[in-house]
Design goal:
The protein is α+β, with helices and mostly antiparallel strands and 336 residues long. The protein has two domains: 132 residues, no CATH class; 174 residues, Jelly Rolls. The protein has seven helices and 14 strands. Helix 2 crosses helix 3, helix 2 crosses helix 4 and helix 4 crosses helix 7.
Length: 336
């Protein structure tokens, strides 16, 4: 089971000759796809085994195995992943500590997906994040995490992190640490599979990060042969935090070149600087690149075939194409 998602992808290696601008654009696309593949594989290898063996994995109903995992849901935060019909309406999954108490739900209301956090007993409040339904596909995977604190809601649709303002009615307050149950998830009808994690915010468990939501979304999609659930490129610099930098597609292409041409020498125990696990923010923060100025950026102007000051002898003992040098320049020029 652990290897199902990881083995579901295969790398395609292309060897091309680049002659003109259209060839450069094609190379950028190839490097971009390679970067996405490598980032996805690294995330899955690191994250999936822990998710499948997590103590916080409380409920899991899958095709043919409705009680695959069936434990009590304890804690003050919860995460839900649901595979459902795109035409589904109403509540897809609802986890609560009592009727109208500390409820966390995923639903479809008036053609929109809602992740809702509410309490209607005693002090009443409702807060939700709402986004449109996906525009294509017969099925979808929706994932949401609900933290203990007010307004702490994350929503993902078909693997893509959703943004928006949490809508509020009343004065939301912290969830309590208590036993919770799944009150609604119509498996076999509109819902095909669901996974629920529950845990304690004191130990930062139970509320999955965006990276973890993405991994489980794609895993559940694989179970149900849902093809349009993707790895969100914005998670490349996420670092498992759930937030992370918004990815710059040109950085993905540049990182693929740096990984291929530089880190054999520029790594721990090798030559400075250490480019292993380079991110855009790290490159700027460490002074390796200057935003918008390749010729002022040591990472660029030391490359063979580059422009600007200094000796141009990198990569040492190897070669780099004009298109690859241009991709590094394009990335640095694009940094805001």
């Amino acid at each position: 089971m652990k290897s199902a998602l990881i083995a579901g992808s295969a790398a395609v290696v292309l060897v091309l000759g680049f002659q003109n601008c259209s060839d450069f654009a094609l190379q950028d696309q190839v490097l971009y796809e390679q970067g996405l593949f490598e980032s996805r594989e690294a995330l899955d290898a690191k994250t999936l085994p822990a998710l499948l063996e997590s103590e916080e994995l409380s409920l899991w109903s899958k095709p043919g195995q409705p009680n695959f995992v069936n434990k009590q849901v304890w804690g003050d935060q919860v995460s839900i992943v649901v595979a459902a019909d795109r035409s589904a309406t109403g509540t897809l999954a609802n986890v609560r500590s009592g009727a109208g108490v500390d409820e966390s739900s995923i639903s479809v209301v008036a053609g929109k997906i809602r992740a809702t956090r509410l309490n209607t007993v005693g002090t009443s409040y409702t807060e939700y994040l709402e986004v449109p339904l996906p525009s294509s596909g017969d099925k979808m995977v929706v994932a949401a995490s609900f933290g203990a604190k007010a307004s702490d809601i994350s929503l993902m649709v078909n693997g893509v992190v959703q943004s928006g303002t949490v809508q509020k009615t009343g004065a939301p307050f912290d969830y309590s640490y208590t036993l919770r149950s799944l009150s609604s998830a119509p498996v076999g009808g509109q819902v095909y599979e669901y996974v629920v994690y529950g845990g304690d915010s004191l130990y930062k468990k139970g509320k999955l990060t965006n990276s973890e939501l993405n991994v489980m979304s794609r895993y559940v999609a694989n179970d149900n042969m849902i093809a349009n659930v993707i790895f969100d490129p914005s998670l490349i610099n996420d670092g498992g935090s759930g937030g992370g930098d918004v990815v710059n597609p040109k950085f993905v292409a540049a990182k693929a070149i740096i990984d291929a041409k530089c880190i054999s020498c520029h790594k721990s125990g090798g030559y400075d600087p250490n480019f292993v696990n380079i991110t855009e923010s790290k490159a700027v923060g460490n002074g390796w690149v200057v935003k918008g100025s390749p010729e002022a950026s040591k990472l660029y102007y030391r490359l063979q075939g580059s422009t600007g000051p200094g000796t141009k002898n990198m990569p040492s003992g190897g070669s780099i194409s004009a298109a690859e040098v241009q991709a590094i320049a394009d990335w640095i020029n694009s940094i805001q």
